[in-house]
Amino acid sequence: VQLQASGGGLAQAGGSLRLSCVASGIIVSTHAMNWYRQGPGKQRDMVARITSGGSASYADSVKGRFTISRDNAKNTVLLQMNSLKPEDTAVYYCNTQQDSLNYWGQGTLVTVSS
């Protein structure tokens, strides 16, 4: 299983970014897929999750601003991030589990300036 995350960069507060996670070795529509983030000096926390059935859930800190979705044709998971805040600055990781194993993408850095 390989997860390739991209789409990070520099954004101003109030701006938007869209992260992509291209998966190989699994079919994203049959697995729960997650986005985590790790800010400077902080632990890695889950930001958003989409189940195999398509149900989405979010951390309280991003509810109403972030949207997780899938593009099944491209075997990709997306994270649309709107109304960005400086506290959203972090490395964002794509994650899934298969056969009790945890798989992580390489991370993509999001920096939000005030």
What does this structure look like?
This protein is mainly β and about 110 residues long. It has no helices and 11 strands. The chain has strands at about 1-5, 10, 15-25, 35-40, 45-50, 55-60, 65-70, 75-80, 90-100, 100-105, 110-114. Strands 2, 4, 5, 6, 9, 10 and 11 form a 7-stranded mixed beta sheet that branches. A 4-stranded antiparallel beta sheet has the order 1-3-8-7, with no helix packed on it. The radius of gyration is 13 Å and the shape is globular. The mean pLDDT is about 95.
Order of helices and strands: EEEEEEEEEEE
Tell how many strands the DSSP assignment holds. Answer: 11
Uncertain spans, ≥5 residues at pLDDT below 50? none
Note the total helix count.
Answer: 0
Mean pLDDT: 97
Helix content bin? under 10%
Give a quick account of the main beta sheet: strands, pairing sense, barrel closure: 7 strands, mixed
The value of Rg in angstroms is: 13 Å
Please state the overall shape, judged from the principal axes of the Cα atoms. globular
Proportion of residues in extended strands: over 45%
Distance between the termini: 37 Å
Class based on secondary structure composition and strand pairing: mainly beta
Relevant terms:
114 residues, mainly beta, 7-stranded mixed β-sheet, 4-stranded antiparallel β-sheet, globular
